[in-house]
Automatic annotation (TrEMBL):
Record's keyword annotation contains Nucleus: no
GO biological process: glycolipid biosynthetic process
A GO CC term assigned to this protein in UniProt: Golgi membrane
Name of the protein described by the UniProt record: Galactose-3-O-sulfotransferase 3
KW Flavoprotein (keyword) present: no
Length: 466
């Protein structure tokens, strides 16, 4: 064989045979590796499988160690040290620590595999929900295009009164129900643009404010109030549940009023009552999530609840919290560029003592268990409220105290504390003093009185600005 000539030049059959052997050998080796990785190792040597996956995890985590999530909210304060920041990477320590944790994990796996009587494939680990980070704030928000998603028995009426008073004073158009006698939109079906009364002089049926009860549906609401700032309010689930029960006279409807504790009786039988046709049934299981568009069939699916909360975090610009009402209003004022006078309020539709029920810790625990979705929702947005307070800056406490002082002074000047309006025995309404001025009258006007006033003004075309 001369220089430059290969062996295959003289023996092509032998060369082709060796090539086929080589390809067969490679295929066999690849098949063995695949079977070991996918079946043999996991089935008969799970510890070795865990070692491979752990090594892969270490490599992936080390390669991405320098890629950190940027600060979520901009401003003077950073939330990097807050209790909802990303968990510390367990592999950020030295190599010995990593291997120690990995071996410990393998030991735990071996123990559980040995002691378990069920096959490993039948065991399902609980789903761990990672913390949902706050969404970056949207800038250039509209101060005159607002959707307030009013939830049930959360002080939503008081907040709705603020928006309706502001809109009335600034001559803004309101999206109101098609039924001229209705004060709220349909509450058990998601909002649709066809629900609104179409005023012929409103350009393309685009409005400034939607603040009546309506079930959340983002696309349809954005059609009616384009480029809107979205706001809602939440309340501690056990208190919201009790308020729904008392305000809507559920005890009388279910013939529980003569029991020692109607609320406790109702809670103990909630699964059975929920299957009946009692009024407001859909609001007695995760009612706040239901208001926010969660479907009834998904109320026990924690993964879908988690996904819903995540989407709400991204879609709402501010979620007020009933238990931090004044603090929430300070954030609202800053968000919309309002003044202190714009957020002055008298509490609206507050229940009288005759429609309240005592709750012990046992009742509260049962309510929270039944409304796990609302608990998850409330706890998340309660934390985001604290973040927003921190972001507000060092003047927050001073601004809060100034507002509370002014609100208290206005209340003292306006209200006759010796008398109440008892026309609705469920509610405690204030009576104005003889010295009440126009501001007092505006503050004492509830949202439904504003609704009637706005309706008549819009029909007569006296509100004209969009």
């Amino acid at each position: 064989m001369g220089p430059g000539r290969c062996f295959c030049h003289y023996k092509p059959r032998v060369c082709r045979m060796n090539l086929w052997k080589f390809l067969f050998l490679c295929t066999a080796v690849a098949g063995i590796i695949y079977l070991n990785k996918q079946w043999i190792i996991p089935s008969y040597c799970p510890s070795l499988s865990d070692i491979f996956s752990s090594i892969s995890s270490i490599v992936q985590k080390n390669s991405g160690r320098d890629h950190r999530r940027p600060k979520i909210i901009h401003g003077d304060s950073s939330f990097e040290n807050s209790d909802l920041q990303e968990e510390e990477d367990p592999f950020d320590s030295d190599d010995d620590q990593r291997w120690h944790e990995m071996i410990k994990k393998l030991d735990t796996h071996r123990e559980s595999s040995t002691n378990s009587s069920k096959p490993e494939k039948d065991q399902q680990l609980p789903f761990e929900f990672p913390n949902i980070p706050p969404s970056p704030p949207r800038y250039n928000l509209s101060t005159e295009r607002i959707v307030f998603l009013k939830t049930h028995r959360t002080a939503g009426s008081t907040v709705a009164s603020l928006f309706k008073r502001y809109g009335y004073n600034h001559k803004l158009f309101f999206a109101l129900p098609k039924n001229l006698q209705a004060k709220d939109f349909l509450q058990t079906v998601k909002f649709h643009r066809s629900f609104i009364f179409e005023y012929p002089w409103v350009p393309q049926q685009k409005y400034n404010i939607l603040a009546s009860h309506a079930r959340y549906e983002r696309t349809e609401m954005e059609f009616v109030v384009p480029k809107a700032t979205f706001i809602t309010i939440l309340r501690k689930p056990e208190d919201q549940f009790e308020s729904m029960f008392g305000f809507h006279n559920i005890a009388e409807d279910l013939d529980l009023q003569n029991t020692s504790n109607p609320l406790e009786k109702f809670v103990d039988g909630i699964k059975a009552y929920y299957k009946t046709e009692m009024k407001f049934r859909l609001f007695f299981k995760n009612g706040q999530l239901f208001d926010l568009g969660m479907d009834e069939k998904d109320m026990d699916d924690e993964r879908k609840i988690y996904a819903k909360i995540k989407s709400l975090e991204e879609e709402f610009d501010l979620v007020l919290i009933r238990e931090y009402f004044d603090e929430s209003l300070i954030l609202l004022k800053k968000l919309l560029g309002w003044k202190d006078d714009d957020i002055l309020y008298f509490s609206s539709r507050v229940r009288s003592s005759s429609h309240r029920y005592e709750m012990n810790d046992n009742i509260k625990a049962k309510i929270r268990q039944w409304n796990k979705g609302d608990v998850m929702l409330y706890e998340h947005f309660n934390k985001t409220l604290q973040w927003k307070i921190q972001e507000y800056g060092p003047s927050f406490q001073e601004d809060l105290e100034r507002f509370r002082r002014k609100n208290r002074e206005v209340f003292d000047d306006c209200v006759d504390k010796n008398h109440y309006d008892s026309s609705d025995r469920r509610l405690k309404r204030y009576v104005l003093s003889n010295f009440a001025d126009s501001l007092c009258k505006e503050l004492n006007r509830n949202e439904y009185e504003y609704h009637s006033l706005l309706r008549s003004l819009m029909i007569s075309n006296k509100l004209f600005r969009v």
